[in-house]
Design brief:
Two copies of one chain form a homodimer. Chain A has 409 residues and is α/β, with parallel strands linked by helices. Chain A is built from 16 helices and 14 strands. In chain A, helix 11 crosses helix 14, helix 11 packs parallel to helix 16 and helix 12 packs parallel to helix 14. Chain A is globular. In chain A, 44% of the residues are buried. At the A-B interface, helix 7, strand 8 and helix 8 of A face helix 7, strand 8 and helix 8 of B.
């Protein structure tokens, strides 16, 4: 049995000074010996990601930040590392050691949680030892509107309360976002065009395709899956025109040509721009893309580090298309995996992959950072649609975004 | 990006005495520092599984058996552990240390490779040190028909030859098995009925469904995916009857009732009995199932260790159905994950899960062991079909198996 995709699990990160009991708190939450618990401060040296079931929420990704704070205060490297984790954190748990002072470390974290709209649950741990934190409790309530949970990870006291508080504070949209469920009615048909290119490993479908099929099933729709070469046969097999056709962006051109104008057509990448990102921000990116000049500088960012094919979309095709349109002096920089430049203001445009491996919070953090640096950003699929002149058509299934795009152009 | 499912990757296990250079050989094969290499014998204590690309084969699962042989000869525990790995090994690499004797250890392994039809590539490692194994080379050729590759994992000499030999000796059927590709013609439609039950994690499809959709795409077919509640709407949307309907076995009854008799219907579990197991062996299991008596003893074996739901198929539903048919004194034993009893002859029937997490070789090993113990074996889905009287219909898409079943009944 496979589990819920990583990017689909709410990310819960546990912060706190060394030896505050982060790992044992995670153990207690999950009723299993997962994290390495030790009396020696700073046992783990890197954040540890662990996919698990956390009732009543269900599947989550738990992040143990042990090691980041090994000297007790928040040095520059540690600040950076913490903030990197907060960028993808849907909900933070801040563990305060009953025996240790509450100070700059906690305040800096709380300020960053506020700044990034990251909901937080505060916990005062080790209350099995003499409790002397009434002052901290007051301060948290007064300055941060937080009512900390008094807990002993050791004895289990307070764990149930923590579990419930996490479920209560978890943002709803990490659970209830639609891919196409909001525009497909029960019993309607959706054709999914999924080219099998040389990059597709044997025996599987790529994650956005699987998630889209599942979303259609969840909303009582009917999916028809075919390659671009069988699209005509698929349409011919149906009594009526499908409600919607969704294609991989690489086949956009061919599919748009094969399909009557009155059939709604969009791309997986546009669905995922909506589901995991922000269509409005990407539309500003599309405008910028249309206005790129010969000496501009473009950052191409890819969230995963897969082996590049000879005709790789990010490293080969997109630069080629863009240069043939704008001019060969167009400058490109590439980053992949966890890398993402701190200073984005050097770039004129960020071209980002579909982010199937990132959770929504991290995509939104990357978009926010681009906005703050005044840089436009667009994802691969929308860029391809725009470059090939079919973004208009691909936006029609989404009336609000379509109107916005028409006004903005 | 997701990778090829584990069960779909050819499994290559590297055997050899401690310090023969297994880990460094794997490193050299893969051009990356993957395994932990050390001068101290017996660095790793458990077999290490590593999914990787091995050119020219593609995605494989590499198994480093270090630690199993830490005392140099093959004690009983180590024999057992080695054989457990061989059960799932599609191809074995036996590393012989140029500096150490060739003896009982290697002979026992080679005999087991022979017995289990496991192809093997022999390697004499460390030939950068004085080479004195001509006698061993002769013996391997004479007694085992093996021409060992002379190799230095250290310098890289012989690595390319090893790579090619692995690709050459890898059994073809780990790569070319069909799920439905052999019975669906280009442009034909296949309806896949995929109930979304409470056990299905959010945002995904279970692996057999994904693999079936992919197999249909690979063979130019058209998949129509719906829940059992939208089956009628799906059929109504099509101009012609589909070539085939495939259902999750839990919805077999409802789907069979909703579907005209002249439409071919089968189950994912029957497809996977063919793809990963042996339909013929399972049909003998179906016969035994029909003849079960009140005091018989049934082993229920599940390959994964997922959390059990209240209405779990293996622990709740199947025992309930069987007892209501045969009598309440029917005895059940349950195993899950890697557990699988050595002595199967105590049981009258083995009921095995669909094995989506096992590779084909391990499923076939489990079946062979049952056959050798004289015990019938059947998988969940075929058992459900048989218990509900629809196995006949579910076999019709496969004429040879259907005939066999009619003769056998």
């Amino acid at each position: 049995m496979q589990s819920t995709p990583k990017g689909n699990r709410p990310h819960i990160a546990v912060f706190g000074r060394r030896n505050a009991g982060k790992s044992s708190l995670i153990n207690s939450l999950c009723n299993q010996k997962l994290a390495l618990v030790s009396e020696v401060p700073g046992t783990t040296t890197d954040p540890v990601y662990k996919a698990m079931e956390l009732l009543p929420l269900g599947p989550v990704m738990m992040i143990d930040t042990a090691g980041i704070d090994d000297s007790g205060d928040l040095g520059e490297m540690r600040v950076k590392k913490s903030y990197e984790i907060i960028r993808k954190t849907d909900l933070a748990v801040l563990v305060i050691d009953n025996q240790v002072e509450f100070g700059k470390y906690e305040q800096k974290l709380l300020d960053n949680f506020n700044k990034t709209n990251t909901p937080v649950v505060a916990v005062i741990n080790k209350i099995d030892l003499a409790f002397d934190k009434t002052e901290v409790v007051d301060k948290l309530q007064r300055e941060y509107d937080l009512k900390p949970i008094l807990l002993s990870a050791e004895s289990g006291q307070g764990i149930e309360e923590l579990r419930d508080k996490i479920a209560e504070k978890m943002p709803q949209d990490t659970e209830e976002a639609f891919i196409v469920g909001d525009i497909v009615n029960p019993g309607q048909t959706v054709v999914l065009v999924t080219p099998i290119d040389t990059a597709a490993p044997r025996g599987r479908l790529i994650l956005p395709q699987v998630q889209t099929i599942r979303d259609i099933l969840d909303h009582d729709g009917i999916s028809i899956i075919c390659k671009e070469t069988e699209l005509k046969a698929s349409l011919a097999a149906l009594k009526e025109k499908p409600k919607l056709v969704i294609t991989d962006s690489q086949a956009f051109m061919k599919v748009a040509a094969d399909l009557d104008e009155d059939i709604l057509l969009t791309g997986f990448s546009i669905l995922f721009a909506r589901y995991k990102g922000d269509l409005e921000i990407f539309l500003r990116g599309a405008k910028k893309l249309a206005e790129l000049k010969a000496d501009d500088k473009v950052l191409i960012a890819e969230a995963c580090t897969h082996r590049r094919q000879a005709d790789d979309i990010g490293t080969v095709k997109l630069p080629r298309w863009l240069r043939s349109k704008v001019g060969s002096s167009l400058e490109f920089e590439h980053v992949s995996g966890r890398e993402y430049p701190e200073n984005l203001s050097d770039y004129d445009l960020v071209l980002h992959c579909g982010s199937c491996m990132l959770n929504r919070k991290e995509v939104l953090s990357r978009l926010r950072e681009a906005e703050e640096a005044g840089v436009a950003v667009i994802n691969y699929g929308m860029a391809i649609a725009q470059l090939h002149g079919i973004l208009d058509r691909a936006l029609k299934p989404f009336p609000a975004a379509y109107r916005l795009w028409q006004q903005q152009k």
